[in-house]
Amino acid sequence: MHFDLIQSLSLAGNPATPNDDRAGTGDTHGWVIDGATDLGPPGLVGARGGAAWLADRAQRAFTGAAPAESIEGLCEAVAAQLAADYAAARTRDPLDRWELPIAAFLAVRIGDGALECGWLGDCVGLHRRGDSVTRIGPPREAGEAEAQSAASLAQHGLGSVQRSAPILDALRASRNRPGRTVLGVEPEVMTRLRTLRIDCAPGDTLLLMTDGFAALIDSYAAFDEPGLMAALDEQGLDALATRLRAIEREDAACARYPRFKRSDDATALWLRIGG
What we know:
Protein name: PPM-type phosphatase domain-containing protein
Strand content: 15-25%
Organism: Sphingomonas hengshuiensis
Number of strands: 10
Helix content: 25-40%
InterPro entries: PPM-type-like_dom_sf, PPM-type_phosphatase-like_dom
Radius of gyration: 18 Å
CATH architecture: 4-Layer Sandwich
Pfam family, one: PP2C_2
Largest sheet: 5 strands, antiparallel
CATH superfamily: PPM-type phosphatase domain
CATH class: Alpha Beta
CATH topology: Phosphatase 2c, domain 1
Oligomer: single chain
Low-confidence stretches: none
Structural class: alpha+beta
C-alpha cells in the first residue's frame, strides 16, 4: 500500500507574518507540522524566528527520512536530526525555556496492514474507512484549556498581532512548564510520543490537520468528524478553508470563541491509501 495525495492547503493566519505550518507526504508516510508562535524576537537560531526555523527543519527531516520499521523509529530519527540542527544553528543560550523552538506534529506511516500514527501536541487527523471515521491525535477536550486561558485574559485584548504584556507573560509561563508533549530540539521529547495503530486498506482516506484547520470541528463546532469528512468529499479543502475564515471574520473580537489569534495558520493534507 501507499499514499496518494488528493489535495493539500496551507493558509497563513496573518499574511504579514510567516506561516509556521508545514505538510508533506512520501510513498508510505505523511505529516503535518505546526510551529509554535515565537514569544520573543528572533536571535536564538539567527535572524529567522524559532517557529519558522523549526518547522522548516522538521519538514526537511520528514522529507529526507530513511525508511523506518515503525512510526516510533521515524519520529525518533526526525528528533535526532532536529537536535543536531539546533546544536549547529544556535547562536547563544536561550533566555528561558519559553524561547526554545517547539512545534506540534502528526505523522502517519503505512505498516503491515495497519496505519501507524504518532503525534506530539495538538495536530489532528481523521481516518475514514467506509462509513466509519476514527479520530487521530488528542481528544477534542484537550484544546479546552487554551480556550479557557484565553477567556481569562480577554480583558487584555485577544486577537491582536501585538500581544499585551499580561498575555505574553502568561504564554511564556505556560511554555516554561516541564514535561510538555511537543516536538522540540531535545531528543528526549520522543519519550512522550503518543501513538495509535488502525487497520487500513486501499480506498481509505485521511485528513491530517494543524489545529488552525481542525478548529472547524474542535473550536467552532462547524462540523462533527463524520460531517467534516463528508463535506471534504463534496466541497474539497478550498471551500472548507473559506468557511473557516468566515467564522473567524464574524468573530473578529474573539468573543464567541476565545483565542489568542484572530486566525491561526491553517494546514490540511488529504490523502487516500492506494493498493
